[in-house]
Amino acid sequence: xxxxxxxxxxxxxxxxxxxSLPKDEVARVKGLGCLWDKxxxxxxxxxxxxxxxxxTGEQMTAVAQAARQFGSGEVTMxxxxxxxxxxxxxxxxxxxxxxLAERGLETGGTGAKVRPVVSCKGTTCQYGLIDTxxxxxxxHRLFYEGYRQVKxxxxxxxxxxxxxxxxLKPDLNxxxxxxxxxxxxxxxxxxGCKVCQMEKNCPIHVAHLExxxxxxxxxxxGGINGGIxxxxxxxxxxxxxATPSIYQEQDSVDLQSGKxxxxxxxxxxxxxxxxxxxxxxxSMIAIGLxxxxxxxxxxxxxxxxxxxxxxxxxx
Length: 315
Fold this sequence. Notes:
The protein is α+β, with helices and mostly antiparallel strands. It has helices at residues 23-30, 57-70, 93-102, 132-147, 197-201, 272-305, 308-314, and strands at 34-36, 43-48, 75-77, 83-89, 118-119, 158-161, 175-178, 207-210, 213-216, 224-225, 228-229, 250-254, 259-263.
């Protein structure tokens, strides 16, 4: 079993090294995609935007040349598939951005704005059900390039996943797209025969007949696959941990008299939470469903306002 000395790990804090630049200037260049490296007084890591992580050979050569010429020579990758040129001195930021712009590259992807769109490799992956490269490029052009100058309350992330395996975790983004195939029954063609072609043709033998109705063999997912309902009943299991009674005397305030008082508990009150919890759980489910419905209606309203060309890009 291998071990290491945790005391050797460098602990970083704002008090270790002070930035030599005013806070307003640090915030300004951050909006350009340049993040202060807190290990230094005036060096930055500059983010280079990619379209879902793809670069041409010429662009990669340009990034490598820029890293050597304007930074430390190192390039790192971010979780959102952008590149960061490391160790760029403050005075090199604008020359670096000009150098990249001449070669069709730009910096950005920071701040409370729409962030670059990311996608998995669903286009080439054996499990991919949609062309994630093509779709994410369209979404990138429409939303990142179209709205990146709009100031938002918080950063806004979009991800495109190719299948319900959810490798990219689209459901953890603000907008997530998941490629999925769901069994669809055309009742006009269904003759209610005992040999269902849908059941026979399902590659993983999920669909089957039950009382003349096509259903999935199991519902272990509770009716949800990849964050999307699959047509089966939605099941929800809730576990409530009883709140323990604290018998130790505690300081409190008597709201009626407005004076400090001592709080003591006698007897057991744990089971009382179960009756209240049921109402809370039911209410939260209703709120969650209402929120999902509102998001769907808002999305449909947005699509209706788009031009036919714009709608074609996201369909």
